[in-house]
Specification:
Length: about 120
């Protein structure tokens, strides 16, 4: 007898050991399944096949990204972000409406990472 929560923790541990440096995984995307390969009741042993999957993404250095886009117009920001691997979509918002470039002060730049 084993707890499925223990199996989930094992799946997380295994997944984290397999992810390359500079990558991370989306916690709510974790999926796992298992099947019994062998069972020895006398010895109290069970061997399971475990399949684990999750969405993996490249980590973003927000400070570096902010430095790269500061004081730039939207078309320049698109070029900068477009060179970064892994972005499928992104949205640039400047506020108020008359602002034509991102702030010089990186503390005034907000980056929101949304994983779909």
């Amino acid at each position: 007898v084993f707890k499925e929560s223990d199996l989930k923790e094992l799946a997380k541990f295994y997944l984290e050991s397999q992810i390359p440096a500079g990558k991370n995984w989306q916690e709510n995307s974790l999926a796992f399944s298992y099947s019994v390969e062998s069972l020895d009741l006398a010895a109290g042993e069970i061997v399971l096949n475990l399949e684990v999957s999750a969405k993996i993404y490249s980590m973003v250095d927000e400070n570096s990204l902010k430095e790269s886009v500061k004081n730039k117009k939207p078309d320049e920001i698109k070029k900068v972000i477009g060179r970064i691997a892994g972005f499928e979509r992104f949205q640039i918002e400047l506020w108020p409406f008359w602002v034509k470039a991102s702030p010089e002060d990186v503390e005034r730049i907000t980056i929101k990472l949304r994983l779909d």
